[in-house]
Amino acid sequence: MLQTLKINNVALIKDLEIDFSKGFNVMLGSTGAGKSIIFDALNFVLGAKSDKTLIRSGERVMKVEALFSQLGKSENDALMALGIIDEEVDEILLSRSLDVDGKGSARINGSMANAALLKVCAGALVDSYSQHESVDLLKSKNHLTMLDRLAIGTLDKVKAELKNEYSRYQEILAKIAGLGGDEFERERTKSLLSFQIDEIEKASIEVGEMEQLAQKIQLMESAEKLFEAGRECENLLSGSSMSAIASVHEAEGLLAPLANISEIEDYRNRLASCKYELEDISYSLRDLCDNNTYSQVELDRLQRRKDELKLLCKKYGGSEEKVIEFLEQAKVRLDALTDSEAYLAKLEKEKLQSEKSLETLCAKLSQLRKQIAHEIESKMMSELSQLGMKSTTFVVEFNRGKIGENGFDEVEFAFSANKGQEVKALSKTASGGEMSRIMLAFKTIFAKVGSASTLIFDEIDTGISGEIGYVVGEKIAVLSKDNQVLCVTHLAQVACQGDAFYYVSKSTDDKTTYTNVRNLNGDEIEYELARMLGGDKVTDISLAHIKQMRLRAGK
What we know:
Radius of gyration: 41 Å
Structural class: alpha/beta
Largest sheet: 6 strands, antiparallel
Strand content: 15-25%
Oligomer: single chain
Number of strands: 15
């Protein structure tokens, strides 16, 4: 259940904290007091599209927190299935903020999240009715999803089998396409692969060769400078009696008579090491200069080889490793194409078998859906009859579409409000008042299969009045026995059946306007309900009427 809602800087609300109760929670207050703002704030923290125009005038950031507690097994299972929690928890805290620059943040139990994840999480915690949802119900593209949701558990096995088979079917089609299409295309592909394989194999490419070529080319292009610098270095190191090696050797000899002094012996050994190192450098420079002779012919050969490898890398992957990998894959594809006739015949046979399996599974899924649809039709007409629509016909219509991973069914809800009238799509026949009752009937059925234990009804009474208002209130009251209900209503017939009441009002000081909320108790409840019934002027008659309504609701 939603235990606490904290709202900061949302529209007319500065700072507000509301503690909700179990059962049927009713929001009362005059039009414009801010009831819808509270629901806008709740929808915001539940992941609805952010709107910075909701930020209170003069403030930079709005923030909303929603604490859900006493989570049941179904809610925990749903949250774990979504990967939001790893183990069962008793409560979960959602928070979200948005600043005037459009930058926002969201958290679930203190961990960073985003609006999409909040929305997914909210789906396991809250089920709501609003005019927006009424529009969604009118769209036939949503009807199959709603039907499957009401068939929870019944379709799971078949849908899993169908999904796996459809995935297999797509893989078979991809393999057939990979063979190059028709015979002409396959021959052209074989020719291209043969050319590519021959080109790469003739090049005898090796990993690391490009780097070695670059080093050789750099040395050869610098041959003249290298020769001059190398010979000069060699001369300085060992070319005369005044060379570095000769000087170090002489210094070592001067210290030889003092070798019995340990510290001097250490210096002498270090000089000897330097001499050996300098001699090695001198010999190596001589070899490098002797062996690195400039040859324009050799340089051209190295450049051509480098260009050849560079072109191959550009054509086949970007690196020597990728070219070799491409070669192996091309050989596999060519082998497959070479034997393509037999392979294609095998794939075509598998394709035909998969299509038969898909047809069987889709038909089985459709049959199960139709069984569920008959149950839904019966339940919907029963619910609608209780809501004063006794001559209603509600039908789930099936049409066949293309086979997909969700079957071939196209579903649309059709409706007739009066006996003898042709059933038509909801979008073409249901009035505003009828849609409110249809939606309530759906919610009543959904509540029995859904995981969410908090139900929100925002002006469910649109287009309803009189005795039907009582029935709507009774339906919501029945739902509140096993679920927490939050309801905004303008009908006293609905409101009088509530368990907890919250009065929303506006106050103004010299500078600004605030929305406030307070719990109603005792006589305050009946007084505010009487105002709903008869306007601002509360009379003994309206109060007596409310007492009778509350007494009926209690029964």
